[in-house]
Amino acid sequence: MDHFSDEWFRSEWRKLRFYYEVDHAAKQWTITGEVGGLEAFVAAVRLYASDPGNDWISCHCNLGPYDYLEIGTWTSPVIDSHWIAGPLSELASLADHIQAWLEGAQSGESILAREFFSPSSPYDLCLHLIGAGFDPSSLDSALTG
């Protein structure tokens, strides 16, 4: 498979198990996936938050085939145009909150994170639960064919 071909990007989305996009006009990140996919996002946040080596300001990791979503360390919780960040303990709490929501959520439901994670953030984070059989690459409009 050619690196950076459409098939490579499809494969990377499928490995990630969820799709994300940012709408700068609406000032919102949206993460879409079935239960396992959103749990993969929770696991990524939890893994980042559990590593004491990440406990320095501006430390971050990039997610997905395009690497434009960052999970990072900051002095206070924030969701903005390039990342979801905060103290490691706050990121762990974000993961816990999303996991608790997932335990009772139904396909088609969404949750907004700004209210409970960082009310003064310029952007919001929407997690949208979709039914089984979802292919994250199917939402990538940059892929052809």
Can you describe this structure?
It contains four helices and eight strands; from the N terminus they run H-E-E-H-E-E-E-E-H-E-H-E. With 145 residues, the chain is α/β, with parallel strands linked by helices. It has a single domain, classed as Gyrase A, domain 2 (2-Layer Sandwich). The strands form two sheets. The chain has a four-stranded mixed beta sheet with strand order 1-2-8-7. Strands 3-4-6-5 form a four-stranded mixed beta sheet, with no helix packed on it. A hairpin with a 3-residue loop joins strand 5 and strand 6 (83-85).
Descriptive tags:
four-stranded mixed β-sheet, single chain, 31% helix, 23% strand, alpha/beta, 145 residues, Gyrase A, domain 2
Report a brief summary of the structure.
The protein is of the alpha/beta class.
The share of residues in helices is: 25-40%
Mean pLDDT: 95
Q: What is the distance, rounded to the nearest whole angstrom, between the alpha carbons of the first and last residues?
A: 16 Å
Any idea what the radius of gyration is? 15 Å
Overall structural domain count: 1
Total beta strands: 8
Which SSEs are present, and which pair or pack?
Elements: H1 6-16, E1 19-23, E2 28-33, H2 35-49, E3 60-63, E4 69-72, E5 78-79, E6 83-85, H3 88-102, E7 110-112, H4 114-117, E8 124-129
Parallel strand pairs: 2-8, 4-6
Antiparallel strand pairs: 1-2, 3-4, 5-6, 7-8
